[in-house]
Design brief:
With 157 residues, the chain is mainly alpha-helical. It is built from six helices and no strands. The chain is elongated. The two termini are 46 Å apart.
Length: 157
C-alpha cells in the first residue's frame, strides 16, 4: 500500500476507535436494540437512511402544528383539527414514500458494498499470488527462441 493510503487508514482507525469508546455508544450497543442492529446491518442502514431523510418533513409538520395551534388561540378551533388531520395524512404518505426510498437506497448501497469488497479482495488476492510466484521464480517467462525469431523477422523486413 502507498504511504498516503496507510496514513488514511490510520486516521480512519482512530476515528472509529473514538466512536466505539464513547460511553453513549457503548451503552447503546449493549442494549437489545443495539445488539439487534449490530446483527442486522441492512436494517440499521435502512433505519439510518429513514431517519436522515424524514427529518425535514417532520420538522415542517411540527412547524405547521405550532402555526395552527397559534391560529387556534385566535379562535379557529375546528379548522385546526381539520388542517392537522390533513397534514397528518400528508405526513404519513410522505414518510411511507421515504421509507420505501430508504429501503431502496439501502439495498443499492448494500449491493455496491458487496460487489466492491469482493472485487477489492479478488484484486488483492491475485496481486498476492503474483508476488508469491515472482518470489518463488515460478512465473512463466518467454523462451529465448521466441525472442530470436522476433528479432530475425525484424531484420528480414
Amino acid at each position: 500500500m502507498s504511504k498516503e493510503m496507510q496514513e488514511l487508514q490510520k486516521q480512519w482507525h482512530s476515528v472509529v476507535q473514538s466512536i466505539h469508546s464513547n460511553s453513549n455508544v457503548v451503552a447503546f450497543m449493549n442494549s437489545r436494540v443495539g445488539q439487534y442492529l449490530d446483527d442486522h446491518p441492512f436494517v440499521a442502514l435502512s433505519l439510518l437512511m429513514f431517519i436522515a431523510v424524514s427529518a425535514i418533513p417532520v420538522a415542517f409538520f411540527l412547524i405547521f402544528v405550532v402555526t395552527t395551534a397559534l391560529m387556534a388561540c385566535v379562535g379557529v378551533i375546528v379548522m385546526e383539527g381539520v388542517i392537522i388531520a390533513i397534514g397528518g395524512i400528508a405526513l404519513l404518505c410522505v414518510l411511507c414514500g421515504l421509507g420505501a426510498l430508504s429501503l431502496g437506497v439501502s439495498g443499492v448501497l448494500s449491493v455496491c458494498y458487496v460487489v466492491f469488497s469482493t472485487l477489492v479482495n479478488y484484486w488483492y488476492a491475485s496481486r498476492g499470488q503474483i508476488k508469491k510466484q515472482e518470489l518463488n521464480g515460478s512465473l512463466p517467462q518467454k523462451s529465448p527462441s521466441v525472442l530470436d525469431l522476433s528479432a530475425n523477422n525484424g531484420k528480414n523486413e
